[in-house]
Each structure stands twice: as C-alpha cells, then as structure tokens.
Amino acid sequence: QPQLQASGPGLVKPAETLSLSCTVSGDSIINSPYFWGWIRQPPGKGLEWIGSIFFSGTTHYNPSLRSRVTISVDTSKNQFFLNLSSMTAADTAVYYCSRSAVQRVVRGGFHHWGQGTLVTVSS
Amino acid sequence: QSVLTQPPSASGTPGQRVTISCSGTRSNIGGNTVEWYQQFPGTAPKLLVYSNNQRPSGVPDRFSASKSGTSASLAISGLQSEDEAGYFCATWDDSLSCVIFGGGTNLTVL
Q1: Which of A5, B58, B77, B86 shows its CA 20 to 30 Å from the CA of B49?
Q2: DSSP track, B2-65
Q3: Taking every pair of C-alpha atoms in chain A, what is the biggest distance, in angstroms?
C-alpha cells in the first residue's frame, strides 16, 4: 500500500506561485502503472481535480486550471510536484495528492490519498 | 455548481438502507465508469466504489453501487452511526476532458 505525504507552504500571497511536493513511499513512481494526481477542496466545499502525471512525464490537466498548472515528477526522489501560478483567494483549499485506482488511465478513481495540506492565499 | 448533481443531504436511522443519487449526462456518467468516495471531516476522501460497482479491498459489502444511463447511485444497507460522513460521486467527462465530482451528500444517521 503506497503512502503519500503532501508538503508545502501553508500561506501564499496573492499573485504568487504555489509549489507543493508529494513524497511517495511503499511504491516506486518509476515504472509504476498508475497515474499520480492532485485534487483540491476549498473549505466546506466539494472536490476539484487539478491534474495527473504518469512516471514518463505524460500529464493531464483540468482545462479550467491548465493555463496556471504544471505537474512534474522526480523519479529519483520518488516525488511529484504541483505548481499553481497567479494564486488568488479562490485557490484557498486543502490540496491532496493521490494515486489512481486503475492502471494506465487518468480516469477510474483515486485509490490512495495523502493527508492533505491546507493552503491559504492571503496577503 | 457541479456537473454531477447529488442531493446535499440524506439521513437514515440505524439499520436502515439509504440511497444517494448522482445525476449526470451522456458525456460523463452515460459513457464512463463512476466512483464513490466517503469523507469524514478533516480527513482525506476514501474510495468506496470504482468501475461503477467494484469495492476496493476492505470496504464492507454494506456499500453497493449501480449505474443506469446517465445516473448512478450508492446504497448503504444496515446503516451504522459510523457511516455518518460526506459522500461524493465522480467520473470522467468526455466533453470537458476532465475528472469531475459531484457536489457531495452529507449523510446523517439519526
């Protein structure tokens, strides 16, 4: 069973870029047949998929965020990353990293989740 | 407003069977598999169902799900107090090229 741990700043200023990392243990990203993804949840609201990446570097992004999102992977460190630019108050949320449930496809659900990290956008 | 429509709340008494619905369109539920998640306050969601009706290892068989046309539903039988949580449906939307979630249903065990 993989364990995922998201980390990053809890506070980001408006217009800045958010950088989060997700460290994976219990599974190896390199050659893993699963996608690794980011999902966020504003306080008291629903879930929003941000995007997912395969170990090869193939990415899929939520079209509503594509212009601001970059997801990358460092297989040597068994980590993947989220960069979200031009942050606003609307981006305040708990950010989760996850592993997909079905091999080789983005769709099909997220089976393993990190604990989530709250990111607040405020000056 | 979510693309997938769920009732904001549901309730039941211990031992009852409760059903939560999730309504979509041909571009999402109509053409793709559906997942269901359970979430307790302050914790990450937990995958309850994938591929419309498959339960990951460890999920009690009290939880079952089905899909018909452009709608899906999650049923919880033998309701227990520890089932009080938020429940979200999810699927892929072919038009949006995106994973989408329902707005969530808060289940109260009376």
Answers
A1: A5
A2: -SBB--SEEEE-TT--EEEEEE--TTTGGGS--EEEEE-TTS--EEEEBTTTBPPTT--TTEEE
A3: 41
* Contact between chains at A49 and B91 (C-beta distance less than 8 A): no
Question: Across the interface, do A47 and B98 touch by the CB < 8 Å criterion?
Answer: no
A4–chain B nearest CA distance, Å: 11
- According to DSSP, residue A41 is labeled E
Average pLDDT over residues B83-95: 97
Mean pLDDT of chain A: 96
CA distance linking residue A54 with residue A72, whole number of Å:
9
pLDDT (tens digit per residue) in A38-79 = 999 999 999 999 999 999 999 999 999 999 999 999 999 999
d(CA B98, CA B45): 19
Contacts of B88 in chain A (CB under 8 A): 46-47
What is the tens place of the pLDDT at every residue in B22-68? 999 999 999 999 999 999 999 999 999 999 999 999 999 999 999 99
Q: Does B99 touch chain A (CB under 8 A)?
A: yes
